[in-house]
Amino acid sequence: MKPTLLKLTAILLILAGVFTSCKETPDTPFIEDDTTIKCGIIKINDEEYLKMCTSPKQVSINSSTTLKLILENHTKEEMFWGQPYRLEHYNGSDWIPIKLNVNFELIGYILKPLEIAEQQFFLSDMNSQTLGKYRVIKNVNLGAQVYVIYAEFEIIKNQ
Length: 159
Fold this sequence. Notes:
- The chain is mainly beta.
- About 10% of the residues lie in helices and about 45% in strands.
- It has a single domain (about 5-155), classed as Immunoglobulin-like, CATH 2.60.40.10.
- The strands form 2 sheets. Strands 4, 6, 7, 8, 9, 11 and 12 form a 7-stranded mixed β-sheet that branches.
């Protein structure tokens, strides 16, 4: 193997290990916006934070809508993130994991300090859709620390 290919393979194996060995932290504190659907925010210190929101906040049931995750890095460090995400449905008392019909490429992205990035995902990736609140869950890295961040959206009746 060529040295560069060997280095790339080692990096990908390390990243795969990071994504599969993350320890879940308690639920991300939420910040309210203009609706009852919440954006996730992780306070790093008194001045710095990471934020994730979904757009739109509400979608019609059985739609093929594309949703956007909006990631914001309000810190002085680079944030590392990838394509993988998880979805959960709120049943009134607990968050229930949703099976997804999607394969993720393990590509790492860097979000520089004070920048914003977007990632798209499709409701059609869900096995089935029911009315109610959902949340998207992502693992992100800031320095050596792995954070778990959440953002909500809602599936409503067709309008």
